[in-house]
């Protein structure tokens, strides 16, 4: 599976603290940076948001969360996720079989990177 196909199969999101979840439309292939560019943010603000805001994707009943350079969530960002978790349940029909991960293990460009640490919310 190439990167574009992977991006079209996943639902990317960014969580804005104190605001909520910004969710990419189905089958769109934008990266998180492209989502923020399309929202009108400049490069400096995008860099800050990528570093500090929780983001991730939902695919195949897996919710994958990360921040910065695909790192595991900080305690602060985990709390932000917990504050919008009911929204995730409703958006993606999360259930007892849904796996939730914090962080991604970076691989080679073009490969599908694997989730890092399984968490329970």
**Kindly state the mean pLDDT as a whole number?**
95
In CATH terms, what is the fold-level topology?
A: Severin
Number of folding domains?
A: 1
Output the helix-strand order. HEEHHEEHHEE
What is the terminal-to-terminal distance? 30 Å
CATH architecture: 3-Layer(aba) Sandwich
Beta strands, count: 6
Approximately what portion of the residues adopt beta-strand conformation?
Answer: 25-35%
Q: Order of strands in the sheet with the most strands?
A: 2-1-3-4-5-6
Helix content: 25-40%
What's the CATH first level? Alpha Beta
- By DSSP (H or I, 4+ residues per run), the number of helices equals 5
Topology (elements, then pairings):
Blueprint: H1 3-9, E1 11-16, E2 20-23, H2 32-38, H3 43-52, E3 55-59, E4 62-66, H4 75-83, H5 85-92, E5 99-105, E6 114-119
Parallel strand pairs: 4-5
Antiparallel strand pairs: 1-2, 1-3, 3-4, 5-6
Helix pairs in contact: 2-3
Explain what the structure shows.
By secondary structure, this protein is of the alpha+beta class. The chain is 34% helix and 27% strand. The protein contains five helices and six strands. It has helices spanning 3-9, 32-38, 43-52, 75-83, 85-92, and strands spanning 11-16, 20-23, 55-59, 62-66, 99-105, 114-119. It has a six-stranded mixed β-sheet with strand order 2-1-3-4-5-6. The chain starts with a helix and ends with a strand.
How would you summarize this macromolecular structure in one to three sentences?
This protein is α+β, with helices and mostly antiparallel strands and 121 residues long.
């Amino acid at each position: 599976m190439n990167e574009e196909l992977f991006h079209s199969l996943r639902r990317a999101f960014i969580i804005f603290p104190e605001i909520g979840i910004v969710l990419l439309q189905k089958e769109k292939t934008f990266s998180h940076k492209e989502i923020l560019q399309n929202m009108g943010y400049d490069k400096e603000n995008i860099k800050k948001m990528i570093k500090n805001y929780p983001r991730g994707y939902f695919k195949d009943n897996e919710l994958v969360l990360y921040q910065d350079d695909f790192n595991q969530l900080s305690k602060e960002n985990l709390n932000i996720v917990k504050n919008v978790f009911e929204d995730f349940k409703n958006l993606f029909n999360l259930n007892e079989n849904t796996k939730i991960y914090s962080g991604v293990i970076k691989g080679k460009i073009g490969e599908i990177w694997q989730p890092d640490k399984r968490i329970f919310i």
